[in-house]
Amino acid sequence: MKVVALAGGVGGAKLVDGLAALLSPDDFSVVVNTGDDFDYWGLRICPDLDTVCYTLGGLANPGAGWGQKDETWETLNGLKSMGGATWFKIGDKDLLTHLRRTELLAERRSLSSVTRELCSTWGVNHLVFPMSDDPVRTIVHTAEHGALDFQRYFVQFAYQPVVRLFEFCGAEVATPAPGVLDQIGAADVVIITPSNPFVSIDPILAIPGYRQALEDKVVIAVSPLVGGQALKGPAAKMFHELGVEPSASAIASHYRGLLKGFIFDVRDQTELEKIERWRIIGLLTNIIMHDFQDRIRFAHEVLKFCESILIRSK
Ligand code: FO1
Questions:
Q1: Does the structure show a pLDDT above 80 at 142?
Q2: Can you give 218-239 as a three-state secondary structure string?
Q3: To test ligand 1's pocket by mutation, which of 37, 97, 155, 195 has the most ligand atoms within 8 angstroms of CB?
Q4: pTM of the predicted protein model
Q5: Which domain CATH number covers 199?
């Protein structure tokens, strides 16, 4: 079975890690949100790409999920003592990634080509695509501070401002990264990982070409919410602020029209009937992944579910 995953940062990376352990590089590739990318310390930072790649390369910080394990903070502390910006925490090991990426981009290399090169230095064998080589920037329109760049909203303001609207600047003229649409075309299944629908998956879907490519595909999504709470980050808070009760069915409804299948937590069992009324096949299971064994166990279940949907849709 050939699979493509759409992913944001930490939540998506866990499932991607499990799937990569079960599927060969010929059968599995990942498309990652780059709407969170920004420039800081004069360097290009691509947080979600790095989170997915560090996770696949076994380099990720297991506590935070982002950044590298066994990190040191000499540069950050030094910059702090010189009055530099330190609201976004870049460790010394992580810094090497941003230095090398910025250097290669300055040589007019594309982000997808630079990502391939970085992946090969980290021993990541599966293909990891940025959603686009073109700049797309997520802007969060808030009640208190107006329009905020994503990282200022997320990290500097700790996602406290009340969200009114999301904007994906540049998406309308961006194109999918080279090779991505071929991967989707050849895939049996596309999996929307348990990432934030508003700021991780919607930026990908906002780029012309993706929705059309998914129309004829078996697409399944995994909920990032359990019992109306986000496993990590502000997804539930965002639903509230946009006037929607956060729930598994709210996620399924967000992707309605795209989905053949939806995987959500056993604790949300009461929502199955509603979801199946929309002709989406539901799978109830334990979706929480604490450790690597959980990632493998869950990825197995996801793939079995995909196979059953493929058989039913033949
Ligand atoms: N998230 C934080 O909450 N605080 C940070 O200081 C921070 C630094 C950071 C550095 C590199 C990196 O790749 C990610 C980093 N993140 C940090 C996570 C990141 O900003 C968000 O989790 C994603 O953009 C949302 O998916």
A1: yes
A2: EEEEECCEECCEECCCCHHHHH
A3: 155
A4: 0.97
A5: 3.40.50.10680
